[in-house]
Every structure is written in structure tokens, then in C-alpha cells.
Specification:
Radius of gyration: 20 Å
CATH superfamily of the largest domain: Periplasmic binding protein-like II
CATH class of the largest domain: Alpha Beta
CATH architecture of the largest domain: 3-Layer(aba) Sandwich
Largest sheet: 10 strands, mixed
Shape: globular
Distance between the termini: 33 Å
Mean pLDDT: 84
Order of helices and strands: HHEHEHEHEEHEHEHEHEEHHEHHE
CATH topology of the largest domain: D-Maltodextrin-Binding Protein, domain 2
């Protein structure tokens, strides 16, 4: 693992690196293109912003001439959507292009009235009629399908992108990588010191978001560590920004999130991961070599799209748009969003957001 060039530079880039993380209070910064730390969401009532990282042609969202405008049956109106914070980089990439191509199709990200935004809360808001569609980093649960049927409609989950889960550790932690079995042991409480992984004699401090609200945490609990509950010493944090802060402040810390949220950080290390059947073959979630310090600031690390697409990186998953199939305007709005994202131009924008296209 490469180490930071000096501690002063690490301190100097901490806030800049954290500005790329979108936790609860990063939502508005992403929409407004501010890119810095924020103490909390300031507004959820403005339509799509046209700021942020835009392509050279905002009407297409790509540089190849492919046009979002070719998508048909896009309704007019203002539609609320919400859900997974994993999707925030997609909003930054896609929203300006949608606004340019379909100015009468206005999308408003809506936060829950209480609690943290996430896949679970987004689906609940969709069931309760607060959203036209939602976004999720996990599949819809059987009880959510049943709740929709009781309300007279169905839920359709449509995969739109491929993501990976990455783990942040302190940049000075001298550990080559972690295997899936070791990750399970860490988060269920049976592995408690980094010396057990060939690292320093340091207690492992494991951090996670709550599986009750965060789709990534629910997916991690069910599909990665395959446990009913997290270990008793796992500390739950409100959002990814808080998790990364904990890792920066605790050399023994470890936290996981969507790969674009972790890999773009300049103040942590995105530790490589090995599959269960190849416990010593550590695959990095980042492309090329890991950059720190000014090198990272000049050109942030990028996700390992090849490993994600080929599934050689062991923790890949699909991201879903959840459509409310009710035969009314909500279904039209959700289906239009799906069609936009799955169009050639939309999939290019997915790639620009740091995820992997699904088509």
C-alpha cells in the first residue's frame, strides 16, 4: 500500500476528500455542485440543478452525439423521487442532461420527514404515496411487494447500473487486503484485532450505516456477512461522511460504502478485497495504482470498472430504480426515468458517474 507523503498534506486534504462523500448532509451539496462539507440538507424543494459535472454537450449528456431526447413518452410535470444515497453521483451526472433534454419533466429529490434517506426509507415513502419512484441499492423485499399489493399496485425493480462495495481503512494501516471471510468475522465480532490479519496490534473498530434505512447496509448484512445481526461492537453512523471521518480519526477503523463514495477519497485507503475461494488474491476496487496527497487531488482515484464488470472484484451488485406500477402518472414518471437511464446516452452518464453500465 502506498502511504501519504506527509501528515500535513493528509490533514490538508481531509476536508476536500470528505466533500466528495455524499451522506445525509451531502445531498444538497451534490445537487448544487458545491462539493464541500455541509452540516445538513438545506432544501429538498428545488427541481433538477444544472450545476455540477456536466458533459461538453448538456443536451445529450455524452460526447458521442447520442441524445437523451430520443427517449419517448416522457411525461410533463413535477415528480418527487428519493431513496438510496448511493445514487447521488448519478444525480449529479444525469440531472442536468435530463433538464436540458426534457425541461417539462422535472424531478425533485425528497428527503424523509424523519430518519435518514436510504433504500428502505425511499421504498417506504413510495408505498406511502410520497414519491413517484425511488432508487435502491438492494432488491425489493418480499414484505415490500406485499405492502404494495395491499395498496392496490405493484412494485417493479429495474436494474440500471453495476456498483461495488469498497472498504475504507486508515492510510497508515499496513494491511495488504481483507478476504470476504475476514470481513464477515470483523462485522460479526469474531475478529477483533488487526494483528490477526498480519497488521499492527490495533483493535478493529468496525463502522456501518443502519440496515433499517440504508440499502447498502441491508445488502451487506444479508448477502455479504450472511448474518441476522451485526456484531455487538459495530458502531452505526448516520451516513458515509461520518463513517469516513471515523476511519480518518481511528487508525484501527474500517467502514464500507458504494465504491464511488470510497474510492474518490484522498484521505483514506480503499483496501483490496479477496473472494472466499481465493483468500490471498486481493482485487483493488480502484483502477491503476492508489494515489494520495496532491496526486489524488489533481486526479482522483477511479473505480475498477473492469473488475466490477467482470465480477473479479468479489463485492459487486446492481442498483435499481423502483417503479410504482399503478397505471397512472407515477408509473409514467418512473418508467420514463428507467428509459432515460437505460438509453445509450443514459448508460454513458452512468459511467461518467463512476458506476458501470449494465448494458
Amino acid at each position: 500500500m502506498q502511504q501519504p507523503q506527509n501528515n500535513k498534506l493528509l490533514i490538508a486534504i481531509t476536508l476536500v476528500g470528505l466533500g466528495l462523500v455524499a451522506g445525509v448532509f451531502g445531498l444538497v451539496s451534490w445537487f448544487a455542485g458545491a462539493g464541500g462539507l455541509s452540516s445538513g440538507p438545506q432544501s429538498t424543494n428545488s427541481p433538477n440543478s444544472q450545476t455540477g459535472n456536466q458533459s461538453s454537450n448538456p443536451n445529450t449528456g455524452t460526447s458521442s452525439g447520442e441524445s437523451l431526447g430520443d427517449v419517448q413518452n416522457v411525461p410533463q410535470g413535477l415528480f418527487n423521487y428519493g431513496g438510496s444515497t448511493t445514487w447521488i453521483p448519478v444525480h449529479e451526472s444525469v440531472n442536468a442532461a435530463i433538464t436540458a433534454s426534457f425541461p417539462d419533466y422535472q424531478l425533485r429529490y425528497t428527503l424523509p420527514s424523519s430518519g435518514s434517506p436510504g433504500s428502505g426509507t425511499g421504498i417506504k415513502m413510495l408505498l406511502d404515496g410520497q414519491l413517484s419512484f425511488s432508487e435502491s441499492s438492494r432488491p425489493v423485499k418480499s414484505e415490500e411487494y406485499e405492502a404494495a399489493q395491499q395498496r392496490g399496485f405493484t412494485l417493479e425493480q429495474v436494474p440500471a447500473a453495476i456498483d461495488g462495495i469498497a472498504f475504507a481503512v486508515h492510510p497508515d494501516l499496513d494491511v495488504d487486503g481483507v478476504s470476504i471471510d475476514q470481513i464477515k468475522a470483523i462485522y460479526t465480532g469474531s475478529l477483533t484485532n488487526w494483528s490477526e490479519l498480519g497488521g499492527p496490534d490495533l483493535p478493529i473498530l468496525a463502522y456501518s450505516r443502519s440496515p433499517e434505512t440504508a440499502g447498502t447496509a441491508k445488502y451487506f448484512l444479508d448477502d455479504v456477512i450472511d448474518a441476522k445481526d451485526y456484531g455487538k461492537d459495530v458502531v452505526f453512523v448516520e451516513d458515509t461522511t461520518a463513517g469516513v471521518r471515523q476511519v480518518i480519526g481511528n487508525k484501527g477503523g474500517i467502514y464500507y460504502a458504494s465504491a464511488p463514495e470510497i474510492v474518490t477519497q484522498c484521505s483514506i485507503y480503499a483496501i483490496p478485497v479477496a473472494a472466499r475461494d481465493q483468500p490471498n488474491n486481493f482485487i483493488p476496487p480502484y483502477a491503476d495504482s492508489w494515489k494520495t496527497g496532491q496526486d489524488c487531488l489533481n486526479q482522483p482515484n477511479a473505480v475498477n470498472k473492469t473488475a466490477f464488470r467482470e465480477s473479479s472484484y468479489p463485492l459487486t451488485r446492481r442498483l435499481f430504480v423502483i417503479v410504482k406500477a399503478d397505471g397512472a402518472s407515477d408509473e409514467s414518471a418512473g418508467q420514463a426515468y428507467v428509459n432515460i437511464l437505460l438509453s445509450p446516452a443514459g448508460q454513458t452518464l452512468i459511467e461518467q458517474a463512476g458506476f458501470v453500465s449494465i448494458q
